[in-house]
Amino acid sequence: xxxxxxxxxxxxxxxxxxxxxxxxxxxxxxxxxxxxxxxxxxxxxxxxxxxxxxxxxxxxxxxxxxxxxxxxxxxxxxxxxxxxxxxxxxxxxxxxxxxxxxxxxxxxxxxxxxxxxxxxxxxxxxxxxxxxxxxxxxxxxxxxxxxxxxxxxxxxxxxxxxxxxxxxxxxxxxxxxxxxxxxxxxxxxxxxxxxxxxxxxxxxxxxxxxxxxxxxxxxxxxxxxxxxxxxxxxxxxxxxxxxxxxxxxxx
Length: 251
Ligand code: OAD
What we know:
Blueprint: H1 2-13, E1 17-22, H2 25-28, H3 41-44, H4 47-50, H5 53-58, H6 60-75, H7 81-92, E2 95-100, H8 106-110, E3 115-117, E4 120-127, E5 133-135, E6 160-164, H9 175-183, E7 188-192, H10 204-210, E8 214-219, E9 231-234, H11 237-246
Parallel strand pairs: 1-2, 1-7, 2-3, 7-8, 8-9
Antiparallel strand pairs: 4-5, 4-6
Helix pairs in contact: 1-11, 7-11
C-alpha cells in the first residue's frame, strides 16, 4: 500500500492539472450515510418512493420529510480529513476542478472553491411554478425530531422541490459540459468514494483515460471502476488523501 501511495504522489507531483470526482464515500467519515453497501440509504429506503419526479408528484410530504431528515444529519455533521485534504490539493494546482455527486455542501464548508455539483444541493429548493431557486434549510431545532409535515412554498405561492437531481432527470445544464471541458486537458483524475454505478459519473474514468489523463481511484472496496484505472488505492479517503497531501510540496 505504501508503494501505491508513493506512485500516486509521483503522478501528482508530475501533474499540472487535477480533476477530482467524489461520491458519498467522501462524506462517510463525517457520519453521513452512503447510498449503497450494507448500511446504505437504499437498503432501508426506496429510491422510487423518494428520489424520482413521480414520487414527488405522488407524495411531496413524504419526499420532503426524507430530505429534511437528511438535512438534519448533514447539519449535525462536519467536514472530515478527506474534505480538508481536497481543499489542500486545490491550493497546489492552478488548474483544478472538483466534480461532486454529493449534495451535502461539505466540500464547500471545508473550503473547496472550484466545485461543480452534479446532483444539485440539498440546501436549495426550486419552485415548480416560477423556477426560482432559493436557499432552503430546516430549523436546527428540528434536527432530532421529525420535521413537521409542512410543504415548503415559494414567495409566488408555488410548491418548492429539493434542488437535487432525481433518478430519470437530466443533470443541471452546463455542469457536465464544463466538467468535460476541464477533463479534456487534465493530467490526472482522482475518483474517490463513489460506487461507480450511477451515470453519467460512472463513465468518467473511461472518459478521463480517453482524454489521456492518469486515473487514480480511492475506495474502501473494489468497484466497477477499479479495473479501469491506472492506480487503485484501497482504503479510507480520510486517511489516504491526507497522506498524499502530506507528501506534496507546500503550495
Ligand atoms: P454510493 O453509496 O453508491 O457509493 C459510496 C462508495 O464509497 C462505495 O463504493 C464505498 O465503498 C465507498 N466508501 C465508503 N466509505 C468510504 C471511505 N471512508 N473512503 C473511501 N470510500 C468509501 O455513493 P455514490 O457513488 O456517491 O444519486 O452514489 C452515486 C449516486 O447514487 C448518488 O449521488 C445518489 C445515489 O443514488 C441520487 O440520489 C440521484
